Amino acid sequence: MNEIIYRPRRLRQNENFRRLIRETSLSANDFIYPLFVMPGKNIKKEVSSMPGVYQMSIDNILEECKELSLLNIPGIILFGIPEKKDPLGSEAYSDEGIIQKATQEIKQHYPNLLVMTDLCFCEYTSHGHCGIFENNDVDNDKTLELVFKTAISQAKAGSDIIAPSLMMDNMVKTIRGALDETGFSNTPICAYSAKYSSAFYGPFRQAALSSPMQGDRKTYQMDPANSEEAMREIMLDLDEGADIVMIKPALSYLDIIRRAKEEFNVPIAAYSVSGEYSMIKASAKNNWINEKQAVLESHLSMKRAGANFIITYFAKDLVNYLNE
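Above: the chain sequence. Below: its structure as tokens.
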């Protein structure tokens, strides 16, 4: 009797075989689309380092939301570019702020579209840091006072999910308390729990006009060398009331996504950041890679690692690819 030899290629012979045993898949359900909103009308400025991504006024944001609804993409995450900046980033927590106005308009016209609002101050402060900047560093506890006010203001405007990205200690506890005290106990928190101090944020900072005027963010964003610390950060945020935890960036931190899923088994968001987007766009423009294949493969890796959903600038492209 001949020895039985396992031949994995038997089940790779054609696409239908491959479909039958495929372990991971992507769909429109998996994506959240980032949008950059600014004051004014009829504004749509392309970000030079992010082809196909725009800074837009609310009227054009609404047009984007119409397209996203037709593509059946579940939601967006909003980043605001204020009319003016100051040391406290006061437009971040103003009820008349650009995020608040945009959220109100979107929920009025597209009530079923999920609106996630980024809660941070780097876009709003004149110094470009993510909180109150004193003595060459961000004052954690003073910043939490502004976090409290911003969370309430965003929830009042209609935000479906508050997403704090400033990496302050106890930020989730502060937000959960603010929401519970003001009648928004059903508003979930998607915490940027493992947000690394990354080189891949450069194009975003151009899009959001949020580069720090001095220094860097290494005292509050995480060291890329650390994995155990990420697990501690995630555990802290979950203990403080986070409903979803986010890992950012995605591609360089797939191991963190996998560890978080295995250790906590909670909803995980992966943020495929601006640098990841721009690298693929630049490589495809130079005909070094196939854009469609690279986009599908990279996002499949995030889902395979354990992400429940992905915040990505490729969301519309991905749905169109999947519908082909």
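The chain is about 40% helix and 20% strand.
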